[in-house]
Amino acid sequence: MRVTRDSFTDIYEKYKNTVYSVIFNYVRNTDNASDVTQDVFMKLIDSDVTFDSEEHLKAWLIRVAINASKNLLKYNGRFSDEEIPEIPYFEEHNEDGHLLRLVMSLPEKYRVPLHLFYYEDLTIRQIGNLLHVPEATIKIRLKRGRDKLQKLIYNEG
């Protein structure tokens, strides 16, 4: 399947939240996340890639989003540890957004796999492929991320 100008709008509507949330997990800034999301979809429309399936397209978008996010961080330096703003897309995935804010406070190596696993419904194998990390490492990061999250919840309660 090839992306055409006619199919682009449907693809954008279907995957814009996924791409944005993956990027936000890295950059943790709404303005940068919006800019990088736009860049990812511009790369899609300019690409000559032929996709085998919807899953292949989604994986490609996530991989490009991760790479673009890392490039932004590499060239702009790390962002400040300012308060994470309220974001409507994320808020709708949790009644008060509290759990997501706790997830977003975790280090990147735990935060990103947790997000991809629980919010994007990717398998451990898919996450490993996207992040170029062995499946065993993803399993460990998910376990440790959940443990850290549980401690954060316990310490608040």
Please give a structural write-up.
The chain has 157 residues and is an all-alpha fold. It has 2 domains: 1-81, RNA polymerase sigma factor, region 2, helix turn helix motif (Rna Polymerase Sigma Factor, Chain: A), CATH 1.10.1740.10; 90-157, Orthogonal Bundle (Arc Repressor Mutant, subunit A). 73% of the residues lie in helices and 0% in strands. The chain is built from 8 helices and no strands. The protein starts with a helix and ends with a helix. It is globular. Residues 78-93 have low confidence and may be disordered.
Give a concise summary:
With 157 residues, the protein is mainly alpha-helical.
List keywords for this structure.
157 residues, mainly alpha, Rna Polymerase Sigma Factor, Chain: A, Arc Repressor Mutant, subunit A, 2 domains, 8 helices, 73% helix
